[in-house]
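Anyone else keep sequences and structure tokens together like this?

Example one:
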Amino acid sequence: MTFGPKRGHIMFIFERLFRDFGLLIVYLLLYLIIRDVQILYDNIALAVIAFLMPVKRLIEYLTTYYTIDHEKLTVKSGLFKKQLQEIPLANITAVDFTQPLIMQIAKAYSIHVENAVSLGNAAEGSVKIVLGAEDAVTVKKLLLAKQESYDVQVETPDALATYRASVVDILLMGFLQVSLVSILIQSMAFLGIASGFLAGIIENSKGTAAERVVMMIISNFGPVLLLQAAAVFLVLSFMIGTLISFVKYYGFRITDRGNSLFVEYGLITRKTHTVMKDKISGLVYNQSLMMRIIKRGSLSVFAAGYGAIDEDKQEETVLLYPVTAEAELYSFLEAVLPGFADEPVYEKAPGKALPYYFLCFRFIAAVLLLAGSLLIPAGFVIIRQCAITVSVILLATAIISVILESINSAVSPETKMIVMRNGGFRRKTTLLVRSKVEFAEDIASERKRRRTGAATLKVGILAPNQYSTCKVRNMKIEAIDAVRSGLLY
């Protein structure tokens, strides 16, 4: 069975609607509002640019053909400059479907094909194909036919073991992932600056009786109004985060197909991922500060072909479950990915290593910022007061973050996986497949080794760029040696 040579679906032209047609839409709206052709003639350069991108996209559609045989995917494109791209089916690592709202209406899919090259260069290692629903299913079967771990006969995920995330789980994920620390810092900084300005206005108020009445109202009710504004900002942040999560992950479900996992989600833009289990390099259990308080976290997977940066400069990861309790994490993995189900026994950083955690950018930058604010001339009272207030808040936050990092940092070298845990306010637990590890090294000065018996553990793994290097600071030398001894080179 083969496919093509064939053009994609006509929706290929509109796949990047706002990117390719945004300027044209703005130009037409201006014409409808202004109704003055002369103004548009005066800006003819804008008109040319506005029409150029849609025309370019149309030419790409008309000159691009896809062919799939039993060995490779072939893409021929170009009008004057011909380009031929061939990807062996055996090297394909991922075939994902994306269906924005406009494609749902047209019953078309955007298919994202990745191969091993995309680990180093996403632009060279991926192909985007837009096809109708029937062609999309056929193409997916052909592209994954060479993968031993993929069962091309499976078409109905409802007939298999399926785990669905409830609406409550999805909303909870959005609510808990809002950075409470960031919001509090912004709110406190806003309160400090606004209070300083109000104090300056009140102190320098010399006017009519009416102006003095206004100043009295500000002096009496200004702090209350500021606190109310900060509270509204906090509530809106949580509402927006929750809404974004609902729209992005609505209908989330994961289906265990034996040798692969089928993940789909999305309200306005539907996405589906097929993850071959043998290509999984590791898992990440992310916990925001609020997630840690209620002992919850979100679980993601990274594998060859996932996590690369696409043409729109967006990082793509595969969420394995929106929110799961710490106590239920390994029982869930036992059901879905048994190879990751061993609970780790952690080796933490030695107490002597605590001072070395303060050798980080966020703490040093906060100290320098505070020193700089103290050097502001005393004559600039309000500016100096605001700068010192913000600097003290940032320094206190940095100190707490560093202390939390020293508590969170740990490694578990004795299980089937290498488990590394790090982070300050946000804690990240990374489970790495030993056979995918390419190197493990420790970084520390001789003085630090003698005084603390600790070093920074750095592990390189076969994965997309943002996951390819995992690091945890100030681990015991013995724990690092245990990690090395279990590696398969």
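And example two:
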Amino acid sequence: MSDGRRTRTQVCIIGSGPAGLLLGQLLHRAGVDAVILERRSKQYVLGRIRAGVLERTTVDLLERAGCAGRAHSEGLIHAGVNLAFDGSLHRLDLAAGSGGKTVLVYGQTEVTRDLMAAREAEGLITHYAAEDVEPQDFDGARPFVTFTEGGVRRRIDCDVIAGCDGYHGVSRASVPPDAIRTFQRDYPFGWMGLLADAPPVEEELIYAAHAHGFALCSMRSPTRSRYYVQCPVEDRVEDWPDDRFWDELRRRLPEDVARRVETAPSIEKSIAPLRSFVAEPLRFGRLFLCGDAAHIVPPTGAKGLNLAASDVHYLVEALSGFFLEGDAEALDRYSTRALARVWKAERFSWWFTSLMHRFPEDGAFDRRIRRAELDYLVGSEAAAAAFSENYVGLPF
């Protein structure tokens, strides 16, 4: 069409979260054209508060994308994490247990901001507030995506559609039910999260197991902290005024740590349910699922953003092979390669969640087993090494 309602690209990416933006940037650097569609506004996307622990492999991908400068200058390198239980703090040396690897604390919002800025600097196309997005004909060689922009129905013809639009997005929902299989576990609790301009209580993260439930002490910078407490999944944010949150957080920490918690008015509060979810396969003709559209992990293991980046790595390799080398079989390998790493991360996140949280059905036996597991984890070099290997991120 000559009126601009119909355009063409090689890859149409649905979703402008970190997965979609990172995919678009890496494809651009590889010489593959991509257009991004996002149903929300740019401001909304940047306002989402999410994870903040980056594996080394994720940082490597940001470097390849030319978007790691601010992460390196402002991010916090962590070589260990702390486990708190029975009133004591135990540090696990991640670097010692993983051959020198570390993680980088840098907020997902900042990752998104950096990728957006790079995309805009390159003059690449992103359609925000794209309504009624529909991936179509992806079971053939000429897929296309339709959407509404400014009241006008538009169409993007492409060779490949990448569904990076999250758990509730249209991409996975467009797959015929008989072509996809899903695996899911919903946990009987959520995380009440609070963001505050207060210095972190500890230089490295604290994961706390307590009779009243799990707690996590994290951070976004040396002056901004992110704290969480386990809560009933049916709770509302209104049930958690700041004073109640701070009291409950301190209750679940060792006394010497609790005394050092500096409080401040909350900047943001939210409750997140916890679930484990995987969809198989990740390819449906010319539609490929990537990131939260394909899988969800409970946040305990800090794997959500990193697993999305892992998918992007495998998908970039597949699409580069297809477009640049004419290797159609590269597309076939994406789902198998990505899912192998997905399930390992799902296992670690499920295990760590099960270890650190209090479950409604817990009995005396369950509590003793968890206590023995924690003792083993902090007392065994082999157990600590296995934990560290998974926490810093398995290799691609």
